[in-house]
Amino acid sequence: MKRQILLISFVVLATLAFIARLSYLQLTDNSYQLSPFSNSSTKVVQQIPERGYIYDRNNKLLVANQPSYDIRVIPREVKEIDTLELCTLLKIDKELFIKNLERAKKYSLRKSSVFLPQVSKEDYAALQEKMHKFNGFFIQKNMLREYPINSAANVLGYLSEVNKEIMDVKPYYQLGDNIGFAGIEKYYEKELRGRKGVKYFKTNKHNKIIGSFKGGVYDTLAIPGKDLAITLDIELQKYGEALMQGKRGGIIAIEPKTGEILTMISTPTYNPNLMIGRERSKNSPKLFGDQENKPMFDRGLQATYAPGSPFKIVNGLIGLQEGVITTETGFKCYHGYRYGGRPNEFMKCHCGIVGYPIRLEKGIAKSCNSYFSNTYRRIIENYPTAQEGMNAWSEHVKSFGLGKYLGNDLTVGQKGLIPDASYYNRYYPLKNWKAVTTISNAIGQGEILVTPIQLANLTAIVANRGFYYTPHILKKINNEDIENPNFVEKKYTTVDAVHFDPVVEGMLETFENGTARASKIEGIEICGKTGTVENFIRVEGKKVKLEDHSILVAFAPKDNPKIAIAVYVENGGFGSNIAAPITSLMIEKYLTGEVKRTWIEDRMYNTSLEEEYNKRKKLLEVENEEQ
Amino acid sequence: MRTKSSNIISNIDWLLILFYIALCFIGWVNIYAASTPEENAEILNFSTKYGKQLIFFGLSIPLILVILFIESKFYEQFASIFYLISMLTLIGLFVFGKTLKGATSWYEIGSFTLQPSEFAKAATALAIARLITDKQFDFSKLKYQLQTFLVILVPVILITLQPDPGSALVYLSFFFVFYREGLPSYYITGGIGIILLFIATLAFGYIALLITIFIAFAGLIFYLYKKKRRVFKRNLPSIIGTYLVISLYVLSVTFIFNNVFKQRHRDRFNIVLNKETDDKGKGYNQRQAAISIASGGMFGKGFLNGDRTEGGFVPEQDTDFIFVTIGEEWGFVGSVFVVLLFALFILRIVFVAERQKSRFSRIYGYSIASIFFFHFVINIGMVLKLLPTVGIPLPFFSYGGSSLWAFTILLFIFIRLDANRTLDW
């Protein structure tokens, strides 16, 4: 009997060992149940929600989505396929096939990556039937942007695939995801994109999906992106772009009583549909590489120019506030203003009023350089030192939203430049500069630099008689008005409201009898100010003067203004030549809905400054060859 | 004949048959789960593995009837013939065999394949029983020891040459029988010692082991020298001899392991000894098996709900790794139930074997209990990562006609022999 025990005890021992091992695996070590996601039999698939649409202020659709189809590949699963047939179907040659497959292999053998992006809808239909023949290749639906209206590309921006840098900073994004890269798409990326959902699937050992994981209890739904309405009036925007054809520059129009941006034109612009789909990779370098036209450069926001004559308004207002002039103060003008003893220390003036005292209204209407030089000098010299005077002046100017960022919801912008004492101290280390040293500031030439949107905002300030709302582009999210305290807060200037009326009268006079009288509209009281800014380029070490930049700022109507606008046309000549007619057409279009003065309209359509730009280009080429 | 056959029915050990049916049924249910790609597949689809297994079950019924209706004396008388034929089929493999997964272990008949090594176990068991039953037989004599060793050595060599070392290993189970029938116990102690030394050498390294052995023997000799001077004088040469043999064995294990074993064999040991943690490559099967079983938890994920089973993460899950399916879908409760069912089944065979009056029947019964036990231990031990990977099936569970039929034959010959116990002359 003793010998029978051996086998029996072995059976019992083995049974106990197995039970012990099973309880260790299944009862104590429960890490496998706690985390269903670390289980290698599940696969996580991102659910990418549809991106929000973008509408204009009148609910016109600006940006929609269209389906596109990417061919993706899992290199490890590519086996026994008819390469030739696939190439024919995809309309690619064998070299590209090999190249793309190598690229995919480099990224990952197991994970799928895009083999050929954005196949056309027509090709998709043919491919769909045959795709199963090509192991490892599959089609994935994707969303592309679609722009029903070819306009406002600079405002809307575009999407781009995320790169490594973005993914490192924002873990939300994964390879192949799109992200807003410019404009509205960039600034309101979070609102537009929505939130990705996650679906868990059961997989087999080949990582193939064989069903949903636990009936989908861990899945999260994708939250669709929000639709945005922007403040733009797309009809006005389109109209402005048409008027600006053949010209470089920017038009910014703002609704003064809200700060809403009505138009934001930068020309030359581009068709937003160029930045989507398969053609994008061809178009993008062309657009970005165009150093002459710079279509991707938003002139309305990024270009800094000297403001020219419109800046006289600011100096007039500061003069009144500082008490150095009154509306009755008069200055005489003899074809210009002499600010020093030497022959060249003389600023010319074209106001045409010789020897009579000129008061503020007239000074603005006729854009008298002498008047504002006197005013500017009084402002600075009102203080014991030029330094103090300059700083006081600079503070006043900055309260008009100049020389600083506006803090709006646009992705690009420039501060511009409003000099102060320390600025001049850098150039004159002995600090021996005086008011007359900086006299160009009186007429907006000198060191001052502003962007068109700052200029438009300045106009809105005058229209509002002393305050502004931060110019902004977003109007509604999901059809509900936005609530951004920054956009509803009145921002006052340092100049009291009472001082604005005489200035407004002067600006009205500009359109009634002044420099812009040719552009006045019957029945609408437009208040504006023309400007002409000299500009030079350096060729062979010499300053070469080019055609002046043409500027106009205006608002209308005079009472209860509905639109404030700044127009800047590079090399457009006198402000009254091009900028004024464009401004008045824009105002007419916006306020009345139609343009009756079609002869002016036609003239604007047909005015091209290409010749002027070619001249500049040739000069620059000469310069470059020299180097 | 009439009276006898009626006696057979009444004398059959129905408990064993109940075990058989239970094991086969649970086995088939899990093959169904392991080889069903989608839910709700048809049961009677004979192109699938579970469908084919159903056919194998169907074909075992006539096989069982034939076995039960053959006179029990016939098995004893023709044992040598069975053994001879079985060995010939193994030899024939070298000429006509079909190679699957690197081993020439199959005959191909039409669309079916048969694995003669599975049937050789039954033939060997019969031959061993016949040999030991011989009136002259005496296990204390070297001549008879060598005869029995030869009987199992022939199939072991033939099967190892296929090569199918896993199946060959099963023949070690006959040592339980030999021991039970009187083989001197130093074979068993020696065998267990050899195995323990082998494992210890791999686990701790030969240097540590040699030092330990040296200290142990030095201590022993010192103790005997001081306290038991007479024992010391008489046994010193044999103690030193034993010391040298053990030390040489440890060295040779190291040498064989590093130079004779193939890398894959080394890997299998290293994985179980936790010296290797390559989960994607060498240890993949066992690692995935452990994860799958662990994921079953207390009560399992439920029938056909094992997502890892469905995902096919564990290779060979319908054959050698079938226990994984039980672990995942039926959990701890189901796994323990199956383990206990097997243990009780084996113990029942031992019990029935021990009650035989015929020595032949007892030895045969003991043989098959040992064989079942060996399969049970090696297979589940491997799946639970307690033992190195050895490719042998879990009886009645693993998919495959040959193994099912071979185990059926193995068991039912015994049931037939047992049914005759009261009629023995």
The CATH H-level superfamily of the largest domain in chain A is: DD-peptidase/beta-lactamase superfamily
**In which range does the helix fraction of chain A lie?**
25-40%
For the record, the CATH class of the largest domain in chain A is Alpha Beta
Q: Give start-end ranges of low-pLDDT stretches of chain A.
A: 33-38
In percent terms, what proportion of residues of chain B is strand?
A: under 5%
* Biggest chain contact: A-B, 35 and 44 residues
How much strand of chain A? 15-25%
The strand order across the widest sheet of chain B is: 1-2-3
User: How far from one another are the termini of chain B?
Assistant: 16 Å
- Our count of domains of chain B comes out at 2
Bulk shape of chain A: elongated
Describe the biggest sheet of chain B? 3 strands, antiparallel
Low-confidence stretches of chain B: 1-6
Outline the secondary-structure elements.
The complex is a heterodimer of chains A (627) and B (425).
Chain A: H1 5-28, H2 31-34, E1 42-47, E2 54-55, E3 61-73, H3 83-90, H4 94-107, E4 113-119, H5 121-130, E5 137-146, H6 153-156, E6 159-161, H7 164-169, E7 178-180, H8 183-187, H9 189-193, E8 197-203, E9 209-212, E10 228-230, H10 234-243, E11 249-255, E12 260-267, H11 280-289, H12 299-302, H13 311-322, E13 331-332, E14 336-338, E15 346-348, E16 357-358, H14 360-366, H15 369-381, H16 386-398, H17 421-427, H18 452-464, E17 467-468, E18 474-477, E19 480-481, H19 485-488, E20 491-492, H20 500-512, E21 527-539, E22 542-556, E23 563-569, H21 579-592, H22 598-606, H23 610-626
Parallel strand pairs in A: 2-10
Antiparallel strand pairs in A: 1-8, 2-3, 3-4, 3-5, 6-7, 8-9, 10-18, 11-12, 11-23, 13-16, 14-15, 17-20, 18-19, 21-22, 22-23
Helix pairs in contact in A: 10-21, 13-15, 14-20
Chain B: H1 2-11, H2 14-34, H3 49-69, H4 72-77, H5 79-96, E1 98-100, E2 103-109, E3 112-114, H6 116-133, H7 142-160, H8 165-169, H9 174-180, H10 185-204, H11 206-227, H12 229-259, H13 263-272, H14 284-296, H15 307-311, H16 322-354, H17 359-383, H18 401-419
Antiparallel strand pairs in B: 1-2, 2-3
